[in-house]
Structures are given as structure tokens and as C-alpha cells.
Amino acid sequence: MQSLPSGQPKDSTAFLWFARGMRNIVSLPALILMSAFIGFAGFAKESGIDLTHAVFMTAAIWALPAQVVLIAAIQAGTALVPTFIAVTLSSVRLMPMVTTLVPDLRAEKTRTLTLLFLSHFVAVTSWVMANERIGRVPRQHRTAFFAGFAVTLTTLNIIVVAVVYTFSAGIPAMVLGALFFLTPIYFLTSLWATARDHVIKIAMVLGLALGPVFYLVAPKFDLLLAGLVGGTLAFFIGRRFSAKGKGGGQ
Amino acid sequence: MNYQAFDAWWWPFLFILIAGWFATDVWRYTGVLLGRRLSETSQVFVLVRAVATALVAAVIARLVVFPSGVLAETALALRIGAAAIGFVAFLLGGQRIAIGVATALAVLLAGMMMGF
């Protein structure tokens, strides 16, 4: 199903680019994310969350770690404010991700409202996919293209959660475990494959090493600390080792 | 005031909206407002991108080292070994993601079947 459009009209409309973006859901990362949401549906059901609530969570939050944190808090009977804090800490990572995606996404005439709307659909998978694929799209069509795959990806997984929750009587434990494992390996390989320069690779290595350390030292702030410390270190190490004078070269 | 505090049908939805949706999207919206002023070639952009990447890498490490659910019952050495072997296969296979994912999964499943 990977046939390329042969006769591309010059005046491609937004709708066409939306459709082209949509086609990207037939891909390995989309499949892996669906597997992760199959796992999530099983987890929500096991945790005694209603079907409607699990579906609503997926649509409203659209960030798997935040959803898992929320369910854990619900199960523990945690109050609203501490739950908010736990969830919001797990979601801080979305800010730098969206911040770096915006300059890639917007064209001159892109409205802020459009970007705010689209930002809801940014999660790790769509971010990694956008990094991989958005560069090939003409700038003025990037928001349509991103909307095409990101909104579709979210919609599809909402359906996956509803369907799997309803029929998930007997997913074997080993299969669930394997499904959970797909996600980190996909992030790992894709992030490395799409790294634009060595600063990114250094940041990856540092994040991988620092993450577990900070998890043991400060479990609530582990991602934030690993990101800030690892990212800043990588930035300065990268600057030291890169030949100066060539700003932003490939 | 927890999830089970009120017996009304709408309370869980409101709880999810406040502690889930708002807690998450507030960061996405902040990201948009900050990103609008950022140029792709600026040093600040490179720095923020490095921070975002290290954050995602920490997510990866957490999912492998401290997983939840079924994976938590497998041996740590198996999970790290499967991830490492998968990554090496990915590098050797010309950085093809599918090769890395398939290899890591094969090692993990083999290990689980052997009772690790």
C-alpha cells in the first residue's frame, strides 16, 4: 500500500495533503502505537476503569504515560490536586517537543489557533513520525499533512481502546508484555535513525543513562531532570566538539 | 475529593478533564506559544531539541528498566539485553527500525519462554 502518487497536480489542495498525511497510518510506528493502546485498554479494564472513562481519557489526554499515571492515581484513591500534579509532571516533556515541532510545522500564514488545536495531537509517536516525515512536505502544506496523520492516529486509537476493552477477555500475558516492549524499542531506534546531528545522539545517550538514576533519586521528577540535565550537557558537549562557524549545517 | 468522591455520572469526566486533559494540554499550549518565537536555526532551538530528546530517552529507559504490568515480572537483564541486542541489530541492519524492533521482540519472547 505504499504506492506513490504518480501524477501530482501542481495546485494540491489542503485536503489532498491531509489525505497524504493520513496514508502514513499504514506504517510500523502507527502499528506499534496501536499495540501499546491494546495494552492500555487491557490495563484500564484490569484496573476497574469504565469503558467510557477509558475512551474519554484517551481522547482528552492522548499521552500514554499520563493516562497510566492517572489510572494509578484513581486506583489509589488519590485526591484531585495531587493527581493533577502527578499527571502534569509526566506531561511536561510535551512542552519542549511541541516547541521544537512548531518551527517545522508552521508556514508564514499559519494561525496560532491552528497550531494550538494541532498541538493536542502531539505525543511521542506523532512527534517522532513528524520528525521523520514532515521535511518532505512543502511548508505551506505541513499543517494539513500533520493533521492528516496525527488526528487520524488519535481517532484510530480511541476506536482501538473501545474495541479491545470490549473484547479483551483473554489476551495472554506474554503477548501483552511483548506489546508493551515494542514502544521503547521503536522510540529508541527511530530517534537514533532521525537524529539530525550529534547533539541529538549525545542527548539520547545521556537521557538513557540519567533517566533511571533520577528515577531512583527523585521518582516524580525523573524525566524532567534527565531531560534538563542530559539535554543541556549534550548541548555544551556538542558545541565543544563541533567545528564552529557552520551554523545549522547538515 | 478523589475519583470516587461523588456518585454523579459527570464527576469522573470532570476529574479526567482537570487532572488529565488540562494537566497535559497546558504544556502543549505553552510549547506552541514558545515555539512561535523560535527559529529553526537558533542555538536556543538546538538546546530545547536536545532537552526534548533527552526527555524521550529517559522515557525509553523508564519503560525498559522500570516497566509496569506484565513486563515487571521479567528479569531486568532480559529487558536490557533484548533492547541492546535489538539496537545493535538495527545499527548492523543499516538503521532499519523494523529490524531492531523484530530482533528485540524475538529476544524478549525467547527469554520469557525460558522463564526469565
Question: Strand fraction band of chain A?
Answer: under 5%
Instruction: State the distance separating the first and last CA atoms of chain A.
Output: 31 Å
Beta-strand segment tally of chain B: 0
- Assign a percent range to the helix content of chain A: over 70%
Put simply, the count of helices of chain A is 12
Question: What would you note in describing this structure?
Answer:
The complex is a heterodimer of chains A (250) and B (116). Chain A is mainly alpha-helical and 250 residues long. Chain A has 2 domains: 14-191, no CATH class; 195-242, no CATH class. Chain A has 12 helices and no strands. Chain A has helices spanning 14-22, 28-46, 51-61, 64-75, 80-91, 94-105, 112-119, 124-133, 142-167, 173-193, 198-217, 222-241. In chain A, α11 packs antiparallel against α12. Chain B has a domain at 1-37. Chain B has helices at residues 11-35, 43-65, 76-92, 97-113. Chain B is flat and about 50 Å long. The chains are: A mainly alpha (250), B mainly alpha (116). At the A-B interface, α2, α3, α4, α5 and α6 of A face α1, α2, α3 and α4 of B.
Summarize this, please?
With 250 residues, chain A is mostly helical.
Please describe the topology of this protein:
The complex is a heterodimer of chains A (250) and B (116).
Chain A: H1 14-22, H2 28-46, H3 51-61, H4 64-75, H5 80-91, H6 94-105, H7 112-119, H8 124-133, H9 142-167, H10 173-193, H11 198-217, H12 222-241
Helix pairs in contact in A: 1-9, 2-9, 2-10, 3-9, 4-5, 6-8, 11-12
Chain B: H1 11-35, H2 43-65, H3 76-92, H4 97-113
Tag the structure with descriptive keywords.
heterodimer; A: 250 residues; mainly alpha; 2 domains; 12 helices; 0% strand; disordered C terminus; B: 116 residues; flat
